[in-house]
Design a protein that fits this description.
- The protein is mostly helical.
- It has one domain.
- The chain is built from 5 helices and 2 strands, in the order ββααααα.
- It has helices at 25-38, 43-62, 74-85, 87-97, 116-126, and strands at 9-10, 14-15.
- Strands 1-2 form a two-stranded antiparallel sheet.
- A hairpin with a 3-residue loop joins strand 1 and strand 2 (14-15).
- It is globular and about 35 Å long.
- Residues 1-20 are annotated as: Disordered.
Length: 152
């Protein structure tokens, strides 16, 4: 499946899902603000990074235990970290979307260079999420997460 820079609709399935439609607005605004505080992002870039972080995590939860070796890009990983560091909200996300199981984050020191980042973006698109392809552009240089059963 080819991925457009902003894959927003599919003629057979309709509009793509956006994390913005799932995350409560007060939490979304808080996490966008955290990204703006900690990185040189304006609100648009922060929202893009956060959206892809949620799409990645929710895809990882949906495919829990399949040992797919999912991996975010460097930019998407920043969104993932912002989400998981807000531990109360992250635990609630896991309760709602991961059958009450906590999806652990188990980073590795070495980066993979095996195409897993782009394959992850393709799986996210196949699962019906919008994919902001420019945020996945460093696909050859990232992917340090452990491909365990219940971790990303």
């Amino acid at each position: 499946m080819a991925i457009a820079p902003f894959l927003t609709s599919n003629p057979t399935t309709g509009p793509r899902r956006s994390a913005r439609d799932i995350v409560p607005s007060d939490l979304w605004d808080k996490q966008v603000g955290l990204l703006q505080r900690d990185y040189p992002y304006d609100s648009i870039m922060a929202a893009r990074v956060l959206d892809q972080g949620y799409a990645y995590l929710l895809t990882a939860m949906r495919h829990r235990g399949q040992q797919l070796g999912l991996a975010p890009s460097t930019l998407v990983d920043i969104g993932v970290h912002t989400i998981i560091l807000d531990t109360v909200a992250y635990a609630e996300l896991c309760d709602r979307h991961n059958d009450g199981r906590f999806l652990h984050h188990v980073p590795k020191v070495e980066f993979k260079n095996d195409g897993s980042v782009l394959k992850t973006a393709q799986l996210i698109a196949a699962d019906g999420w919008e994919v902001d392809l420019p945020l996945w552009a460093d696909a050859a240089e990232c992917g340090p997460c452990h491909p365990g059963n219940d971790a990303h």
